[in-house]
Amino acid sequence: MNLHRIFAFRELDDEPKPFLDHIEDLRTMLIKMVIVLGLAMTGSFFFRGALTHFLQAPLAAVDIHSAENLQSLGVADSMMISFQLAFYAGLTVSLPFLLFFLTEFILPALTPREREALLPTAVAGFALFLGGVAFAYLVVLPQTLAFFYADARSLGWSPTWTVREYYSFATQFLISFGLAFELPVAVLLLVRIGILDSAKLSKFRAHAVVIILFLAAVITPTTDVITLMLMGGPMYVLYELCVVVARFVERRPESQA
Asked: Residue 23 CB: number of other CB atoms within 10 A?
């Protein structure tokens, strides 16, 4: 397999290509994605100790005893959880490259206007994903853990969580917030290619609130109102930011003319 040929950037050609050539391009893109994701996952696996401490830090901030006494009930929990953490960490680390390969594949099929919007959209999408994960890790996850810990204590229970349950909850929580923060990317991409505009975004603001709350309820791994508000609130703020940015995007071509 010629890795230099596989990882070489495709030349932008607006001429129609045979169907089999598109299949070959798709196969090449998938091979590159698998290789990069596999390398990122392998590297992340060797840092599994650091990853586990990183994810346990919010719990330790709530109760150091609970963090130090997570229960392992499965024989293979250490390896299974390590593989899961390596997958999520590898996916996050390799995401810019995966977006690059995807962009490279779909770029020839786009119009010049769509091509202009694609690269900034990909960069903004990755930055917002990391922002959502950071916000969840630093703000929301510790408060959510503290809420459930205090709620269990109020019932006279001693919270003793298993490693499988805790890491599954924490990773789903962080990924959910990362995905939720992608809302502006989807909205602004639709604005940039002319499907939406600031007037429509302002007109359907009430509908957007309902949709945001629904999405927050679906992707949040918990059912408490506090977490729902902590996710839905920033999403609504981002939506309002989209309205402002949409107005700027609409005026920019006029100012450049």
From this structure: 10
pLDDT reported for residue 151: 85
Burial class (CB in 10 A: 0-12, 13-18, 19+), 250: middle
CA distance 143 to 133: 15
CA-nearest of 144, 124, 44, 52 to 91 is 44
Nearest Cα to 51, choosing from 132, 145, 163? Answer: 163
- Name the DSSP letter for residue 18: -
pLDDT value of position 54: 92
**How does DSSP classify residue 11?**
P
Helix (H, G, I), strand (E, B) or coil at 16: coil
Please report, to the nearest 10 degrees, the dihedral formed by the alpha carbons of residues 241, 140, 41, 180 taken in order. Answer: -30
Between CA 211 and CA 244 the distance in angstroms is: 19
pLDDT per residue as tens digits for the range 81-122: 999 999 999 998 898 888 888 877 777 766 676 667 677 777
